[in-house]
Design brief:
Elements (H helix, E strand, L loop, with lengths): L9 H7 L25 H8 L10 E7 L1 E2 L11 E2 L6 H18 L6 E8 L7 H14 L2 E11 L6 H10 L3 E7 L3 H7 L5 H13 L4 E8 L6 H14 L3 E6 L21 H17 L3 E4 L2 E3 L4 H8 L3 E3 L2 E3 L5 E5 L4 E3 L3 E5 L3 H11 L3 E6 L2 H15 L2 E2 L1 H8 L3 H4 L1 H5 L2 H5 L3 E3 L5 E3 L7 H5 L6 H6 L10
Parallel strand pairs: 1-4, 1-13, 2-3, 4-5, 5-6, 6-7, 7-8
Antiparallel strand pairs: 8-10, 9-10, 11-12, 14-15, 15-16, 17-19, 18-19
C-alpha cells in the first residue's frame, strides 16, 4: 500500500461519519487497559522480563514518564501532578534510577535500545542537569544503538534554550510540542496561554540544534473553536512547517478529568461543527503534502513515520502511531506501561505509591495482562487494521496456522454495513482492505474483533471516548 494513495471525498464523509459516532477504544493496546487485572504484579512482570526467547540483538524501546506540570490545562486527561515545587525532582530521579536498575536486573540478556521517548506531564519541567541525569540512568542500563530514535514531548511555555541544548547534547533527534490551538480565546478557555511566536521560537531553536523531526499536537472540538478560527490556526501551523502532526479529537471524559466540567456550559462546538473542523484540517494537510499515516497522524513523505507506513513497520501503542513494530517496550515512572511480546504491565499511577512500591520491591507494577492465543490473534488483526489498513489471509495463516476466514467468520460478517458504506472491502478468504474513507473509522472497523468489548458495554461503566 502506497502512502500517497489516500484521496478523501470529504463531502461524503461529512454525511457518513455521524452514523458511526459511538464510544470505543483507541486501541493503544489489545486487550485494552480496562481488561488488565491487579493479580498481575511485580512477580509476574519480573518473570516475563526474563522470557527465554529474546536475543541481545533484539531491539528495545524505552519510555520514561515525567508526571510533573507547572499548571493545569483544562482539556487534559493525562496522568500528571501540578506543582511548582521543583524540589520534588530529586526524589523522582532517585526512584526511577532504582526502578531502571530493577528492570535491568530482571532482563535475561543485555539489551540495547533502538527507541527512547520521554512523555508526561512535562519532561522539560525537569531542569537541564536533571534531564542529563535521567538520560544517563536510562542509557547506562540500556545503551542506545547507533541511529536510535530519541524523542521527547515538550511544553513550549517552560522549555528554555538550555533545555534544547542539553537535549541535543544527549542525542535527542525528535521533538513533539503541545500546541492544541493558536486562537487566543480557545487558549484562554483551556487555561493554556501559548502565543504562536513562543512556539515558533522553539521550533527555530530545535531546527538549529539539529532535531530531525518536529511534531505538533493539535486538538479539535475545544471550547470556542469554529471552522474559521481553526483555519487560522492551520495557517500559522503551515508557516512553522512541522514534520509531523497529531490531530486529536478532544475527549470529553469528565469522569476522568473533572476540570473539563466547565466546558459543558455550551462552549463546546456542536458535533457537526467539530466534524467539519476535522475534515477541513485533513483536507488542508493533504493539500500541503502531508501523508495521512492513520487515525490522527500525518507526516511529511520523507519523515520516518510515513516511511514506516510504506514499509509496514508502523506500530500502535499508548503514544499513538509510532515506528518499530514488534519491539519490546519498557516503561518507567508512575503510570508507565510496558508492552512485551506476550504481556502488558502498568505501574502504580500516583507518585507516592509508585515511589513506595519501587522502594519496597524494585518494581511498581499494579496491574497487567498475559495474552492468550486468542488475544494474540486478535491483537494481530486489530494492529493491522489500524496500522496497515489491511488484513492478508496468507500472513495470518503463516503466523497462526489457521484460516482467517474460518477463525473470524462472525466478526467479518459484522462488517457488512461498513462494507456496504464503502469503508472496507472483504475478499472470499477474509483478506480485508480499509478504504481511504474507512481509515478515519479504523477504530470502528477494529471493534468487531474485540472479544472483551461487549461485556464492557454491558457493564454500563464509561470507559472510552467517541470514535468521531
Amino acid at each position: 500500500m502506497k502512502a500517497d494513495a489516500y484521496a478523501l471525498d470529504l463531502d461524503r464523509l461529512l454525511e457518513l461519519l455521524p452514523r458511526y459516532a459511538t464510544e470505543g477504544p483507541r486501541y493503544t493496546s489489545y486487550p485494552t487497559a480496562p481488561v488488565w487485572k491487579d493479580d498481575y504484579g511485580p512477580a509476574e512482570f519480573s518473570a516475563d522480563l526474563g522470557h527465554e526467547d529474546v536475543e541481545s540483538s533484539d531491539g528495545l524501546s524505552l519510555y520514561a514518564h515525567v508526571p510533573f506540570c507547572e499548571s493545569l490545562c483544562h482539556f487534559c486527561a493525562c496522568n500528571r501532578v501540578i506543582t511548582r515545587d521543583h524540589g520534588r525532582a530529586g526524589a523522582y530521579l532517585d526512584t526511577i534510577e532504582r526502578e531502571v536498575e530493577a528492570v535491568r536486573h530482571a532482563v535475561r540478556v543485555p539489551r540495547v535500545a533502538t527507541q527512547l521517548h520521554w512523555g508526561g506531564g512535562t519532561p522539560t519541567w525537569l531542569a537541564p542537569e536533571e534531564m542529563r541525569r535521567l538520560f544517563r540512568v536510562l542509557t547506562q542500563a540500556f545503551p542506545l544503538r547507533e541511529g536510535a530514535e530519541v524523542s521527547i514531548e515538550v511544553d513550549p511555555r517552560v522549555t528554555t534554550d538550555d533545555h534544547v541544548a542539553v537535549l541535543a547534547e544527549c542525542g535527542f533527534n525528535r521533538i513533539s510540542m503541545g500546541v492544541q490551538d493558536f486562537d487566543p480565546s480557545v487558549q484562554e478557555a483551556i487555561r493554556r496561554i501559548q502565543p504562536a511566536d513562543q512556539t515558533g521560537r522553539l521550533v527555530e531553536q530545535a531546527r538549529k540544534a539539529g532535531f530531525e523531526s518536529v511534531n505538533f499536537d493539535l486538538i479539535y472540538g475545544l471550547p470556542y473553536q469554529t471552522v474559521e478560527s481553526f483555519g487560522r490556526t492551520l495557517d500559522t501551523l503551515f508557516e512553522l512547517a512541522p514534520d509531523r502532526i497529531a490531530l486529536y479529537s478532544y475527549a470529553h471524559v469528565t469522569w476522568v478529568a473533572k476540570q473539563q466540567r466547565g466546558f459543558e456550559r455550551g462552549d463546546l462546538p456542536e458535533a457537526a461543527t467539530k466534524l467539519e473542523i476535522m475534515l477541513t484540517a485533513i483536507r488542508r494537510f493533504l493539500e500541503q503534502g502531508y501523508v495521512f499515516v492513520g487515525l490522527d497522524h500525518f507526516a511529511r513523505p520523507d519523515d520516518e513515520l510515513a516511511t514506516a507506513l510504506v514499509r509496514r513497520t508502523l506500530r500502535r501503542n499508548f503514544m499513538g502511531h509510532t515506528t518499530q513494530a514488534g519491539v519490546d517496550l519498557l516503561g518507567f515512572g508512575p503510570s508507565a506501561i510496558s508492552e512485551l511480546r506476550r504481556s502488558y504491565a502498568q505501574n502504580t499511577r500516583d507518585v507516592p505509591g509508585w515511589q513506595e512500591a519501587v522502594e519496597d520491591r524494585g518494581l511498581a507494577t499494579m496491574r497487567g495482562h498475559r495474552l492468550s492465543r486468542d488475544d494474540l490473534e486478535r491483537r494481530w488483526v486489530i494492529s493491522r487494521i489500524l496500522c496497515h489498513s489491511e488484513l492478508r489471509a496468507g500472513e495470518f495463516e503463516e503466523a497462526f496456522g489457521r484460516s482467517l476466514r474460518s477463525t473470524f467468520a462472525a466478526e467479518l460478517a459484522d462488517l457488512a454495513e461498513p462494507a456496504a458504506d464503502g469503508l472496507v472491502e472483504i475478499d472470499e478468504d477474509g483478506s480485508l482492505r480499509v478504504t481511504p474513507a474507512g481509515r478515519l473509522l479504523a477504530r470502528n472497523l477494529a471493534m468487531p474483533f474485540d472479544a472483551y468489548l461487549a461485556a464492557q458495554r454491558r457493564s454500563g461503566e464509561r470507559m472510552f471516548s467517541k470514535t468521531v
